Amino acid sequence: MRCPFCGNVDTQVKDSRPAEDHVAIRRRRFCPACGGRFTTYERVQLRDLVVVKSSGKREDFDRAKLERSIRIAMQKRPIEPERIDQMISGIVRRLESLGETDIPSRTIGEIVMETLARIDTVAYVRFASVYKNFQAAGDFDKFVSELRPHTGESE
Ligand SMILES: [Zn+2]
After folding, report:
1. Is the pTM of this model over 0.70?
2. pLDDT tens-digit profile of 11-35?
3. What is the Å distance from ligand 1's center to 15 Cα?
4. How far is the centre of ligand 1, averaged over its atoms, from the C-alpha of 125 (Å)?
């Protein structure tokens, strides 16, 4: 796993433990080159999903991107990080169980809104206002793809 700080590929696993009620394995990693520490998650992937954007462009589904947009909506909300992870896993399982490999980005947005609506009204309103405005501008995909990368990415 490449170090997100310095790019060194030779990083070490310091600790592995089950997470999200044994749905994932959480690994603490250490980079001997720069001393950086980061976390990765290992999860079952039932299906390789492809996101079909409103422009018709296709790209591999990226859980990390979905997670970034949800974490932005959840910022400073009193929700446990573990709960957010479970929620994201739930969304991914729903996407995988749609039975299709190709998923319109619109469907993903709607499932996220539905899920947020049940968990946190403020996060729902934030996500929905961003999503709906960008739907109007046809620009939600751009918003999601331009979110800044963060560390602690899983592969
Ligand atoms: Zn490093």
Report:
1. no
2. 999 999 998 778 789 999 999 999 9
3. 17
4. 38
